[in-house]
Automatic annotation (TrEMBL), chains A, B:
PANTHER family: ALCOHOL DEHYDROGENASE (PTHR11496), ALCOHOL DEHYDROGENASE 4 (PTHR11496:SF102). It comes from Thermodesulfobium acidiphilum. This is Alcohol dehydrogenase, class IV. PROSITE patterns: ADH_IRON_1 (PS00913). CDD domains: Fe-ADH-like (cd17814).
Length: 389, 389
């Protein structure tokens, strides 16, 4: 046997079964039958309840004589008390399963609620990695945004309302039984949300590619997602109802989800969870704001990987020094944001000097920080935030 | 909403959890514990029984005081009666789970044996697509070749000994619970088998890429696998113990498996199952022999897709007509075979004129033919075989 060292670290991969494609939403009834489910709890938000996609699912359930209950009180950044409420409602209504239809907030709340049907204590007890013991009831996810990938991920992000930060709960038990991914659902998403969720997906792909938990399989998904978002998002910004662009955006989001669910994430997410929880800010927006400044911070620790991203975007780096290489990548993201009209910066979030400590504290403790190319100190994170607000 | 038609067909994707990497074989004991298993049946073949990999697993089981039974009588092309035997042995030994360690034959036999523990009748009743009703006992797969991908696929190929053909059994129920993929196992595989199984993986990638069941996700896996095999296999032929080459070959095989398990296959496999069953020929060898002549037959029905493969291998096709494009791809495969010293042809299998009818009959009825770019008639398959023997 040769004495070469192994090229790849040991890596794990898990993904739920999924269906992808226009009109795949019509398969919900088929899976209700396949899984022999009798009484699902449909978890959604009040906006979606009146939209055609939820109605489509109700109609399918009625068509096969399936009784269902509805929980529609999920808020934009789902809270710990909502999770407890969902869990109680599922149990009280004698539901045997869950259908989550919505964006990342709805799906995360539904998954966490499902977990609390089967596990004791409070959702706060399950923060971190691999804390969940018992599986949730069967859950079918129907995502209606192109960013969170909660429908294919081992993550649920829930706001701890006492301490005001978003807890990352990471466990294989959070993989849904089936995800039904219909790009048609994006046709009713406001352009602003299309852009914010796509930038969330872009961040997933970037962070998983440079993650310490990356593998050749997650790399493949991440690079493909990055290329597809850079190519498609400017087109979507101009023509947000074009179904072909939306198909590619949904596909990129799915690929980014497969990458980060298995490679985990990094400093952008660690700070976004902390900051977003403290200020109740939309997750995709937080991520998009932080992405380029975190690259600036991380670059020296993962230059080779960041350069690979630039190269896969078509940049030729051969004759450039590290400073210029970094600049090219950061500028490519800023150009993309300009093209699509995303111009919010950290300054717009009005973070006060006095809030930096608590935001930095939760960020350093976030499980996503563990796979960042470098583990920053509390002081470094404070400086990072102070420099950018 | 725009009136554009959708770009992608509705596609399904399912994969087992897997671990990939050098020394990942040591995780077997962890999964025995995670799944709370108490008495696995280790399914393998007599050659592997004495090899270090099976011994490694026995040692792990003994280290955690787990009792196990052994079935080591799987033959190279597993037979229907072996499957029935495995099933009986599992039940009689009161095993609650299966560990399959070996190549595709061992893993297919173990999976099919598991299915027969939980389903009535004979394994022959489950030939075709989605016939299995009840799940098998928990199964952990440890592949020791870089071709079959039985450890990540929804397929099991079992020889019908009465009618002398290989039945394709295709069902989500055939996905293992966990696959532990350790490239180190390839260090003990004879070079001839390394080459035959790699060519099997190459065929999986080719057939899934042009399959009518392909999707953007399976395409990504297939193209990456093809590039990796073309790049790595000639190196392996020269230096078959180099662990870095073996890592890439195992990775390519895994990727090809993810592709074909979800996109299905085509005419190469349909004929290989029929011919290989009739003459008891190794599957990888059959595939490798047939790959270029099936491209010759299929090309006009999937020229665009075959050209994409050529382009991803670096060929510039712009100024070429269809005949030359086809020629380039076929020659690239023949060159690869030459480089690695694979020079068996269909003529070497000594198929008699009188055997063509029965081989063509089973090939036309094979489930893999359903996703070939074109559905050939019985007469066309007969002519195809006659022309090549």
């Amino acid at each position: 046997m040769s004495k070469n060292e192994s090229m790849y670290k040991i890596s794990k991969f898990a993904a739920p079964e999924f269906i992808f494609g226009i009109d795949s939403i019509d398969y919900v009834k088929r899976y209700i039958k396949n899984f022999s489910l009798t009484h699902p709890m449909v978890v959604t938000d009040s906006g979606l309840l009146s939209a055609s996609w939820a109605k489509n699912i109700f109609k399918q359930l009625e068509g096969i004589d399936i009784r269902y209950s509805i929980y529609d009180k999920v808020s934009e950044n789902p809270k710990d008390y909502e999770v407890e409420e969902i869990s109680k409602v599922i149990i009280n209504c004698n539901c045997d399963s869950i259908i989550a239809i919505g964006g990342g907030s709805v799906i995360d709340a539904a998954k966490a609620g499902g977990i609390m049907c089967a596990n004791p204590g409070s959702i706060r007890d399950y923060e971190g990695i691999d804390k969940i013991v018992h599986p949730m009831p069967p859950i079918i996810c129907v995502p209606t945004t192109c960013g969170s990938s909660a429908d294919v991920s081992q993550f649920a992000i829930i706001t701890n309302t006492d301490e005001r930060y978003k807890m990352a709960i990471v466990s294989k038990s959070l993989l849904p039984d089936i995800s039904i991914i219909d790009p048609k659902t994006l046709t009713t998403l406001p352009k602003e949300l299309l852009i914010a969720t796509s930038l969330d997906a872009l961040t997933h792909a970037f962070e998983s590619y440079v993650s310490l938990g990356s593998s050749p399989i997650t790399d493949m998904f991440a690079l493909k997602a990055i290329r597809l978002i850079f190519e498609t998002l400017p087109k979507v910004a101009k023509d947000p109802k074009n179904i072909n662009y939306l198909e590619d955006l949904m596909l990129a989001s799915l690929m980014a989800g497969m990458a980060f669910s298995n490679a985990s994430l990094g400093m952008v997410h660690a700070i976004a969870h902390s900051m977003g929880g403290y200020k109740d800010i939309r997750h995709g927006t937080c991520n998009a704001i932080l992405l380029d400044s975190v690259i600036d911070f991380n670059y020296v620790y993962a230059a080779y990987r960041y350069d690979k991203i630039s190269e896969s975007l078509g940049y030729v780096l051969e004759d450039l020094n590290e400073i210029d290489r970094k600049k090219i990548l950061i500028e490519s993201i800023m150009n993309l944001k300009n093209k699509i009209g995303f111009n919010i910066t950290l300054k717009d979030l009005q973070i006060k000097e006095s809030e930096i400590d608590i935001i930095a504290k939760h960020a350093v403790n976030d499980p996503c920080m563990l796979t960042n190319p470098v583990m920053p100190t509390f002081e470094e994170v404070k400086e990072f935030i102070a420099r950018n607000i």
